[in-house]
Amino acid sequence: MNEKTINEQYAYIRTLLEEKRLKEALMQLESLLWQCPDWDLRTRLEQLQTSYKYMLEYMKQGANDPDRWNLYQKMVADFSPLFSVTTGYWRFR
């Protein structure tokens, strides 16, 4: 992956996060990790995806979760360092 592609992906994912489109940001990060041999990064992404999936399921079931926004904010906070490490991996590869 070349520097231009990495920068474009980075900017696009940042835009998705700013627009509160976490699901799409997770999908884009997954595409960056597709060829990454670091299983820890992939595991961390899978954990975030699972948490997001459960949050959506609870919403679909009509569960009233007063901590939903806090959970969402935590997922975004957990996403950011994972995103930084992943882009760093491709930049210094």
Description:
The protein has 4 helices and no strands. The chain has 93 residues and is mostly helical. Helix 3 (39-60) runs antiparallel to helix 4 (68-91). The longest helix has 24 residues, at 68-91.
Q: Can you tell me the overall shape? A: elongated
Structural class: mainly alpha
Determine the strand fraction and express it as a percent band: under 5%
The major β-sheet equals: none
Instruction: Specify the oligomeric state.
Output: single chain
Low-confidence stretches: none
Mean pLDDT score, rounded?
Answer: 90
Q: What is the first-to-last residue Cα distance?
A: 9 Å
The radius of gyration is: 14 Å
Number of helices: 4
What is the string of SSEs from the N terminus onward? HHHH
Count every beta strand, where a strand is a DSSP E run of 2 or more residues: 0
**Helical fraction:** over 70%
List keywords for this structure.
single chain, 93 residues, mainly alpha, 80% helix
Compose a concise summary of this entry.
The protein has helices spanning 3-18, 22-33, 39-60, 68-91. It has 93 residues and is mostly helical.
